[in-house]
Specification:
Aspartate Aminotransferase, domain 2, 16% strand, 2 domains, 411 residues, alpha/beta, globular, binds pyridoxal-5'-phosphate
Length: 411
């Protein structure tokens, strides 16, 4: 690729220039068509080229393109908050909008600390998270995350938060088998809380269905129920990061609902605007907000584009489509069909596992199926699969490090 003025994420790759999209397809400037099999970064929940979303965004930009959330609000902010709250479980009914999933993680992190202070738990500031997890690329969010490849260069900049093992039955970190394992991976949370010092812990954050770093691994039944019990026992918040798995992707509005467990904060993003505008946020329980109001009512957090009305307009239009076309239910039925068909891949020499929920589905590659031995990292197996996919006209979200942060390949 000839050198232009873009600072690229990766100069070893060739990026096609995309001109337009329609439905599941993207088209480049040579006229080549690609199936966007991963909806970009698992974002495009209602498909490309939805004219009504574009029209809603344009109409809002004409009416008012920007206000500062420090001084004003918009009706669209009130409306979208109400519509999201209606789909959120339990008493999660207070919505704070930001632009990216990373900002959502940062907001949850700060609100958890704020809540601890409100409760007089002044020593509590650490958030426990999991290895092989992803919560974003800003420094706070990356400190929460457990994606070794992304973190390792920046370790000196990161906050030293404790990480527990992932609930990853295909490669159980304890070498055990469900259910005789007695959910050792969930019990690792309690061990870590006690070992770190329960007084210092403000929250536990997890992706209910694990996305970018574990290729749609689904924790076993009982896992989140036990996590909830442990969080309650030590008076710490449970934050469900639904940035990727939320907004219907797994066949439920929020993937934690598959376990019937109620978190205290939900992070959302991606699918809420289906990528038409940058839009993310957190949904917060009444309990947290009631205390916040009682203690003075100042969260004191926000960004320039908090509740940007043009971004919110896409959210409303996308919710209209999700509800009208029953896409959450469709993700369940189409997901079951996709999973059934993908099981055939297991016959392939290097396909170790096929897993997921709804339309969030991952395939893990191995060198040896019997021993589950992964490919050496230097082989760049997933990247080669993704590159070959592009040559043949399909985009996949490539990931690695599923085994131990370094080894392991999945899409
Ligand atoms: N949380 C999860 C679970 C994600 O999958 C992502 C992005 O992939 C993020 C947070 C970060 O979102 P963003 O890239 O919008 O900052």
């Amino acid at each position: 690729m000839s050198r232009d003025h873009v600072l690229y994420r990766d100069y070893t790759k060739r990026y096609p220039t995309i001109t337009h999209g329609q439905g599941v397809y993207l088209y480049d400037d040579t006229g080549k068509r690609y199936i966007d099999a991963c909806g970009g970064a698992v974002v495009v929940n209602v498909g490309h080229g939805r004219g009504e979303v574009a029209e809603a965004v344009a109409a809002q930009a004409k009416a008012v393109g920007y206000i500062s959330s420090q001084r004003a609000r918009t009706q669209i902010q009130i409306d979208l908050s109400e519509r999201i709250a209606k789909h959120a479980p339990g008493d999660l009914s207070n919505v704070f909008f930001v632009s990216s999933g990373s900002e959502a993680s940062e907001s949850a992190l700060k609100l958890a600390r704020h809540h601890s202070l409100d409760k007089g738990r002044t020593e509590a500031y650490k958030v426990v998270s999991r290895w092989q997890s992803y919560h974003g690329n800003t420094i706070g969010a990356m400190s929460l995350g457990g994606r070794t490849g992304g973190r390792i260069r920046y370790t000196p900049l990161l906050i030293d938060f404790p990480h527990i093992v992932p609930p990853y039955c295909y490669r159980c970190p304890f070498g055990l088998t469900y259910p005789s394992c007695d959910l050792a991976c969930a019990r690792d949370l309690e061990r870590t809380i006690r070992q770190t010092g329960a007084n210092s812990i403000t929250a536990f954050i997890a992706e209910p269905v694990i996305g970018a770093t574990l290729g749609a691994a689904v924790p076993p039944d009982g896992y989140y129920q036990l996590v909830r019990e442990i969080c309650d026992k030590y008076d710490i918040l449970f934050i469900a990061d639904e940035v990727m798995a939320g907004m219907g992707r797994t066949g439920a509005w929020f993937s934690i609902e598959h376990w019937s467990v109620l978190p205290d904060i939900i992070c959302f993003g991606k699918g809420i605007s289906s990528g038409y505008t940058p839009l993310s946020g957190i949904i917060v329980s009444d309990r947290i907000v009631d205390l916040l109001i009682q203690k003075g009512g100042r969260f004191g957090h926000g960004h320039t584009h908090t509740a940007n009305p043009v971004a919110l307009a896409a959210g409303i239009a996308v919710l209209d489509i999700l509800e009208r076309e029953k896409l959450v239910e469709r993700a369940r039925t189409q997901g079951a069909y996709l999973m059934e068909k993908l099981q055939q891949l297991r016959e392939r020499k290097h396909v170790g596992d096929v897993r997921g929920k709804g339309l969030m589905v991952g395939v893990e590659f191995v060198r040896d199926k019997r021993t589950k031995e992964p490919f050496p990292a230097e082989v760049h197996f997933t990247e080669r699969v993704a590159q070959r996919g592009m040559e043949k006209g399909a985009f996949f979200l490539a990931g690695n490090g599923s085994v131990d942060g370094v080894l392991g390949d999945h899409i």
